[in-house]
Write a structure and sequence with these properties.
heterodimer, A: 379 residues, 4-stranded parallel beta sheet, 15 helices, 8 strands, B: 407 residues, alpha/beta, 54% helix, 10% strand, globular
């Protein structure tokens, strides 16, 4: 248990102090650090340049200056990122990469260029017709642009071999995270919803092979323990993010564990590997064509709901929680379809609105208590 | 009455009625009906002889006729957030109810979108396709990060035209007629030129054009811009406006004291109120982004040029080009002020606009105001706020003019 505690302490340290993690990396390596906005970012290119890509998924902060850039009905992650940038929190970043899969994320990078000119913004647009060859070729051209920008920052070319190596590092990281999510189900007392989230989230602020090693160690330590008996109910989380920790602790308080997720912040990041291929940028672009069940990836069959139902059945989940990021159009459009599909599949669904700036979680406490009671009554 | 002797107003009413009537009757005969986004390449469906209806136009008409709320209530009861586009909410509810205060249009057999105006369309139409179990043709037009449309984007869009043609051939069970395609493109370009010619009359000072009439005219550009009738209509309109200029007349039922640019989509449920407020202050809306939105000019037969054209739509431009476009509108139409509609439905109409308005002001010195509203959800607009903002703008415009006279 001590070893597990030590691993989690290392993870908690970077999650609590990402700014320090950035400073430490720059001091140690002399290399640049690149901020990666949600949801998708070709981090492998940054990694291949020897730089540290760090996730920028907002955080709780008092919003004041951001509202001079965007109206109040902009999603709270973007409000936080702009606010923190205007306050100078991101001044150690050498650039930010922002992809534009929704209308909000088309606008934010453009605003950034004017409002935060001292941190270079690299805006890319993933295609929606992502399964046709022309879509993959187009995305490759966007990634080429990112590569060129990274080379300009580092002053050195990025070789294909370096890209292939980084792709391998990232694929291994994805694979290990998937293993962790499976293993975590056997240890619902040790790996609480908040701990599960911490393990995944800490990867946003660490060089990936280092994070992979930590998770491998964690899995080994867990396997040395006897599986834990769980008498509470099991949940699948879907949505954009499930934060803050206090929200996840409400699940624990109500004897609810997380057995799987479809969160953009979590599993959607690591459930699709980059396929093998001689041309690394093409392979990276091909990965996007393989993504399924994401609100940001065009799918006229809308397979996402069925994928969540399948996950719930495979994991023995009792209910599904929609963590709805306020003002997130893509997620809000998927929800009414879920309501019908989950109802038909007899999976209870809890709707929680996620807003990073929320001061109190009392409303969520009541809703989660009610949901837990309902699941217990259902048997 | 023969079309030759009709005024633009009479012809518009007849063509609009015909547009809906043809689709309704065609559906009864078993002909294909498509629902399409407003600036999709209609040339493809027009070539195939498919009846095309435009949910955005339909929703706007429902909103203008005061019938939005029952549909919005239904959509929200289905789980659609009130923060989503109200056109989408109205249309997704209409899909269930098929009953509204405007034309009860038939459900579609296929869907076609082009996300050059927003990505909301992708999600909205995904849901339609899923629930109606019909094919969806998507022309994905990536947002223009750079000032110009890059060749990589053009190549990708052009390839999708060919995919869309293949899909249409399968759906229609007949080959695509490239000869007719050429002719439809030529007609569409002539319609765009005629539209541009007519709307440019707003630049005259005083203007013979009542800016609010654009809201009526544009429905034709949305619904029928591949048809000869549109070319004819906009040429008749332009001729009427030319005659007005020659005779010193105007469509405007009051004296034009101030000229403004309206930024964003109309506030359809409050069109009458907005117009009266402007009228009280002698304001004519002579500038807007609408004219350029449907001035779709490209080389007929050149798919590169067509791809570039469909990509360089106002809502798909980068911030710098958005600023330049508005400066041009303000200068060409000689605006004294600008009104920015902070539209709860449309994040692309809002999220760059604080910066756009600041920069446009720096370059033009033309005062501006924002107001909170929504294109069709009547709950997101307050008459008092709008009136106060317009009054404030009027005072500033009057002060500016007084100071210019002193100098």
């Amino acid at each position: 248990m001590e070893a597990i505690k030590n691993i989690l302490t290392v993870m908690q340290d970077v999650v609590s102090h990402p700014g320090q993690a950035v400073k430490d990396y720059k001091k140690k390596t002399g290399k640049a650090v690149i901020g990666c906005f949600p949801v998708y970012c070709p981090e492998e290119i940054v990694h291949a340049a020897g730089m540290l890509p760090v996730g920028m998924w907002g955080g709780h902060t008092q919003i004041s200056q951001a509202l001079t850039i965007v109206p109040s009905f902009c999603c709270s992650i973007m409000q936080s990122n702009i606010e923190l940038a205007l306050k100078g929190v991101y001044n150690d970043l050498d650039a930010v990469i922002i992809s534009s899969p929704c209308d909000t994320l088309k606008s934010i990078p453009q605003d950034w260029g004017y409002a935060i000119p001292h941190i270079k913004v690299i805006q890319i647009v993933y295609p929606q017709m992502r399964k046709i060859t022309a879509g993959i070729e187009y995305l490759k051209s966007e990634f080429k642009r990112v590569k060129k920008e990274m080379e300009a920052i580092s002053g050195e070319p990025i070789s294909d071999a370096a890209l292939q190596k980084s792709i391998a590092v990232y694929n291994e990281h994805r694979s290990v995270l998937r293993d962790f999510c499976v293993e975590a189900r056997n240890y619902p007392i040790t790996i609480t919803p908040a701990v599960r989230h911490l393990v995944i989230k800490s990867g946003y602020f660490m060089e990936k092979s280092r994070h992979t090693q930590l998770i491998k160690s964690l899995i080994n330590e867990l396997k040395s323990l006897a599986p834990e008996n769980w008498t509470g109910k099991k949940l699948i989380l879907t949505g954009y993010t499930a934060e803050p920790d206090a929200l996840l602790d409400l699940f624990t308080e109500n004897a609810l564990t997380v057995v799987g997720d479809d969160l953009a912040h979590e599993s959607r990041q690591f459930r699709t590997d980059v396929p093998a291929g001689d041309d690394p940028l093409y392979a990276l672009a091909q990965q996007w064509s393989l993504v399924e069940g994401c609100s940001l990836a065009y799918d006229q069959q809308k397979k996402r709901g069925q994928m969540i139902i399948d996950m719930a059945r495979e994991t023995g989940a009792d209910g599904i929680v929609m963590c709805m990021m306020k003002f997130c159009d893509p997620e809000e459009f998927d929800y009414p379809i879920f309501v019908k599909e989950f109802d038909a599949a007899d999976f209870p669904l809890l709707f929680l609105e996620v807003d990073q700036q929320r001061q109190s979680l009392e409303q969520e406490r009541t809703r989660i208590q009610g949901f837990a009671e309902m699941l217990r009554m259902k048997g | 009455m023969s079309e030759d002797k009709m005024t633009s107003k009479e012809l518009l009413a007849e063509l609009t009625a015909k547009h809906y009537h043809d689709a309704i009757e065609g559906k009864k005969r078993g002909e294909l009906v498509a629902w399409s986004s407003s600036i999709a390449p209609q040339e493809l469906c027009e070539t195939m002889g498919i009846h095309v209806l435009y949910p955005e136009n339909h929703a706007a008409a429902i909103g203008a006729k005061g019938g939005a709320l029952p549909l919005i209530d239904h959509a929200e009861a289905q789980g659609y957030s009130l923060d989503l586009c109200s056109y989408a909410r109205i249309n997704l509810a209409y899909k269930d109810l098929q009953n509204c205060c405007f034309e009860n249009v038939p459900l579609p057999d296929l869907l076609i979108i082009c996300n050059n105006i927003c990505n909301t369309l992708v999600k909205w139409y995904e849901n339609l396709a899923k629930e109606l179990n019909i094919p969806l043709i998507c022309i994905d037009v990536p947002y223009n990060v750079d000032y110009e449309v890059t060749q990589e984007r053009i190549d990708y869009i052009k390839a999708q035209f060919l995919v869309a043609i293949q899909q249409l051939e399968e759906i229609c069970g007949k080959p695509f007629d490239y000869v007719r395609f050429q002719s439809v493109m030529e007609t569409s370009i002539r319609a765009a030129k005629a539209w541009n010619r007519a709307t440019a009359y707003a630049n005259y000072k005083p203007s013979p054009l009542n800016g609010f009439n654009l809201y009526n005219y544009m429905s034709l550009m949305v619904c029928m811009r591949g048809r000869e009738e549109s070319v004819k209509f906009f040429n008749i309109l332009a001729d009427e406006l030319e005659e007005m200029v020659q005779t010193g007349k105007t469509q405007l039922p009051f004296e034009e004291k101030h000229r403004i640019m309206w930024d964003g989509i109309a506030c359809w449920p409050y069109l009458g109120h907005n117009f009266k407020t402007f009228k009280n202050h002698g304001i004519n809306m002579v500038g807007s982004t609408y004219p350029s939105a449907w001035t779709l000019l490209y080389e007929a037969g050149d798919l590169d040029s067509m791809a570039r054209c469909y990509s360089a739509i106002v809502l798909n431009l980068n911030l710098q080009r958005n600023i330049d476009l508005r400066v041009k509108i303000i200068e060409e139409s000689k605006c004294d002020g600008a009104v920015y509609h902070l539209n709860r439905s449309c994040k692309l109409c809002d999220f760059m606009h604080y910066k756009i308005s600041e920069e446009v002001y720096k370059r033009t010195g033309v005062p501006y105001v924002f107001f909170d509203g929504d294109q069709t959800d009547p709950r997101s607009f307050a008459k008092a706020q709008f009136e106060t903002r317009i009054q404030a703008l009027t005072e500033t415009m009057e002060n500016n003019k007084a100071q210019q006279n002193i100098k």
